[in-house]
Amino acid sequence: MNMLVLPQVLSQTVPAGLSKAIGQGDATAMSAWFHQSLEMSILEEEYETSKNQASRILESFFKTHTPTGFSISFEGTKEQSKYAIGSLTTSNGNFRVNMFFLNKEGKHLIYYLSIEKESQYDITPQP
Q: Cα–Cα distances in Å, from 114 out to 32, 51, 73?
């Protein structure tokens, strides 16, 4: 019997614990997957920040945008890094989340994170 193995599926980019933390708005839990220094773009505000400061920035975001759900839309690889695009639903609108990961000692760590308002040009029908 022939078995087809899809390596991309078996080596998912976004760990389940990270997806859960984003969906629950748990910035402290998210920080376990942050690189020591990372770049962030949160609602068009740009940051070059430490892991600890990144947690505080996200805590502030989650206070005004309480998450109600998070799902991964796409995962891929570009050169030496992996990336993922997700959809965050909150009490205050929907957002697109972009994450770029480095592989450090066998663990995917976020070195770039952006959260932006979902585009008004999305082709999802609105009721």
A: 17, 15, 15
Output the pTM of the full model. Answer: 0.82
According to DSSP, the β-strands at 81-90 and 45-50 are unpaired
Mark the ranges of the chain whose per-residue pLDDT is less than 50.
1-11, 125-127
First-to-last CA distance in the chain? 47
* Structure token pair of residue 81: 């890094």
pLDDT of residue 120: 58
Domain segments of the chain as ranges: 14-117
CATH no., domain 14-117: 3.10.450.50
The CA distance from 63 to 83, in Å, is: 26
Q: How far apart are alpha carbons 119 and 47 in whole angstroms?
A: 22
